[in-house]
């Protein structure tokens, strides 16, 4: 058994990845003229801006891909576009039942999701503000009919709910998903002149990627990855970030919170995955509590885990002028590809 995952890169062995189309493709995994699937949801902390840095830490070969905090799935879709994932070797999980239900419906029932979303987009034209709040009320009412434990709610999600979630995500303030203590979605309307509500082509590409790869999409806590991850697997973890200040925290995308104790437990998961000889990559802020857990931490370094500071751009801020460059951590046991 190899002692540690090898240098990161974008190459894959012949036949290692599959193109979502299942037919003739270029080396990038796409047929000529195709565009790769992109995230179909906006999500707090989404990683599209950080992909150039994260790619330096992709292992050149791996077995199953796991993404326990899937969110918008930016890294998953990036790996699909690079033909780096294999059929029946993808496991995407989250503890947000709406998110999991929406992903599943797009994978399994995409035409119904698209039809409902097109109807919502057409209805919005005459009175965008009234329509938004009307859909939000209907969404909460429909969710109330299936509220249960998270797994059951995700399994009972419908194409109508998925379409409403996408609509609210594309037209709500900053694309946030936030619920109050009663579990009700309470994001206000965003001030967009002409939001792209139904990107039909991308929704189909995303659905095709999920279905062609037979991707598992499950409701599960992040540490459940320890029940299934095997040596040689690639695990990407993107938890709610530790706040840099007392006013910077955004952890309410479910009714639960991700606090310092959770960050400490996550460190144990990262170390165990590394000791199991998985390729593990974690994104997080450079808050002092994260620095203490990984940057120069003897236990983490003993497992081969290193903390790398990278430049990022934060998108979730009420003031555009404050959405500038900031340093974040990429924490991993994969040696970075040289620039």
What key phrases describe this protein's structure?
339 residues, alpha/beta, Rossmann fold, Adenine-specific Methyltransferase, domain 2, 2 domains, 7-stranded mixed sheet, 11 helices, 7 strands, globular
| CATH class term of the largest domain | Alpha Beta
Order of helices and strands: HEHEHHHHHHEEHEHHEE
Portion of residues within helices: 25-40%
Q: Helix count? A: 11
Q: What form results from the Cα inertia axes? A: globular
Give the C-alpha Rg: 20 Å
Write the CATH architecture name of the largest domain: 3-Layer(aba) Sandwich
As residue ranges, the low-confidence spans are 1-30, 248-255
Q: What is the first-to-last residue Cα distance? A: 29 Å
Note the quaternary state here: single chain
**Total beta strand runs:** 7
Which topology of the largest domain does CATH recognise? Rossmann fold
Averaged pLDDT, please? 86
SS class: alpha/beta
Main sheet characteristics: 7 strands, mixed
Give a description of the structure:
The chain has 339 residues and is α/β, with parallel strands linked by helices. 34% of the residues lie in helices and 12% in strands. The chain folds into 2 domains: 1-95 and 220-339, Rossmann fold (3-Layer(aba) Sandwich), CATH 3.40.50.150; 96-216, Adenine-specific Methyltransferase, Domain 2 (Adenine-specific Methyltransferase, domain 2, Orthogonal Bundle). It has helices at residues 51-54, 74-81, 97-108, 110-124, 128-144, 150-155, 159-171, 200-212, 260-275, 288-294, 298-302; strands at residues 65-67, 90-94, 216-219, 234-237, 279-285, 306-313, 325-332. Strands 3-2-1-4-5-7-6 form a 7-stranded mixed beta sheet, sandwiched between helices. α3 (97-108) packs across α7 (159-171), α3 (97-108) crosses α8 (200-212) and α5 (128-144) crosses α7 (159-171). Mean pLDDT is 86; it is low at 1-30 and 248-255.
């Amino acid at each position: 058994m190899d002692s540690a995952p090898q240098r990161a890169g974008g190459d894959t062995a012949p036949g290692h990845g599959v193109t979502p189309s299942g037919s003739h493709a270029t080396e990038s995994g796409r047929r000529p003229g195709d565009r790769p699937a992109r995230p179909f949801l906006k999500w707090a902390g989404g990683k599209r801006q950080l992909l150039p840095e994260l790619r330096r830490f992709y292992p050149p070969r791996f077995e199953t891909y796991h993404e326990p905090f899937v969110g918008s799935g930016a890294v998953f879709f990036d790996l699909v576009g690079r033909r780096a994932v294999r059929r029946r070797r993808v496991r995407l999980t989250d503890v947000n039942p709406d998110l999991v239900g929406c992903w599943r419906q797009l994978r399994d029932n995409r035409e119904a999701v698209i039809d409902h979303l097109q109807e919502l987009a057409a209805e919005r034209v005459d009175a965008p503000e009234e329509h938004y709040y009307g859909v939000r009320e209907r969404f909460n009412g429909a969710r109330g009919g299936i509220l249960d434990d998270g797994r059951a709610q995700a399994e009972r999600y419908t194409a109508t709910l998925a379409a409403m979630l996408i609509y609210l995500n594309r037209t709500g303030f900053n694309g946030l998903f936030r619920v109050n203590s009663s579990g009700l979605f309470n994001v206000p309307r965003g001030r967009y002149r002409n939001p792209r509500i139904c990107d039909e082509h991308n929704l189909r590409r995303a659905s095709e990627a999920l279905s062609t790869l037979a991707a598992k999409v499950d409701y599960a806590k992040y540490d459940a990855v320890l029940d299934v991850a095997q040596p040689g697997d690639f695990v990407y973890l993107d938890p709610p970030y530790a706040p840099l200040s007392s006013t910077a925290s955004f952890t309410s995308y479910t009714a639960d919170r991700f606090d310092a104790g959770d960050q400490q437990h996550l460190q144990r998961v990262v170390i165990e995955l590394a000791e199991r000889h998985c390729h593990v990559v974690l994104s997080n802020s450079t808050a002092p509590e994260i620095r203490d857990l990984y940057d120069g931490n003897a236990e983490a370094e003993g497992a081969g885990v290193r903390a790398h500071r990278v430049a990022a751009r934060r998108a979730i801020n009420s003031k555009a002028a404050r959405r500038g460059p900031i340093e974040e951590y990429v924490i991993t046991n994969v040696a970075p590809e040289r620039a």
